[in-house]
Amino acid sequence: MTVQNLAANWDKQWLELLQTNTNNNIYGALTRLGIFLAVGTFLIFMAQWLRDVLENEYSRPISSLIMPLIVVLFLANPGNGTALSNLTLGVRNFLNTINQQVITSTNNNQIYQQAINLSIAEDVVGAFLRPCQSLNGELQNQCLTKAKEKIDPLWQSYRNQYGTQPWINRLETQVNQIVFNTSPVSELEFNALLGSGLQVSIKNLLISSQFAFQNLMEATMLLIAVLGPIALGASLLPVAGKPIFAWITGFFAVAIAKISFNIITLITATVVVNTSAQSVNENMDLTWFLICIGLLAPILSLVIAALGGIATFNAISYSTTWIKQRI
Fold this sequence. Notes:
Structural class: mainly alpha
Distance between the termini: 51 Å
Helix content: over 70%
Shape: elongated
Number of strands: 0
């Protein structure tokens, strides 16, 4: 599954939760909860507002009216999607567009998919050839011949998808050298191409890990989006840090994590494919690449997102203070 397809598969969930029949779904229920919180906190807000008016602090009450107006505006009409849900969906689509531009600008030749399929192809070849490893003589030759008949369509499939790539030719040549070897195939020759069963399991785990991280980021962003009405409804509380600011920060932090992760994986995938093209006659150990995309890239992208989130929160807080001082 490509990164583009992954985002497209989540689009339906966003539309169903934030815009389709919000009277009966989770977002509608949380919107009503947000309105309930807004009404409750509004009473507290009005008590403080009237106190400030009685104390002749007029500048503060006037500036304080901004937040109630925002709450009413964005939580109105919960039946067919509120202004908040429409804005949230629009921001998500904008961030996704930026993410897609990052992907397409560095992935014109489907570099990322080639790097992943390079690893997958080794596992597929290993699945067909590994049973032949324990055989000898004519039985091994027959096993290798049958395995090659099953493997050959794989090369054609990759060429149809990516064109003639050096890594495809390299793997095909290595398989042919094993299949057409006139002397018995040694265990070293098998392992040079196929690797051990443990290595295959670790590689599969790392590939699954990076797909899991991508889906987790999509699910996290959607979860944050759904909690928007509660954050907005609680923002009338007389506290310094408004929940809506934390909500905006979290939303953009996850977006930064997604973009950072994609940049890291695409750059490393480009290195893998380019190295494979330059080292046609050498076996490649892709473990480092899979560790990078399955373990290190998620960690690094989350660190970058945390730093970016802090910067976003500080920027929003500073802007809010600046606006209040001038109203």
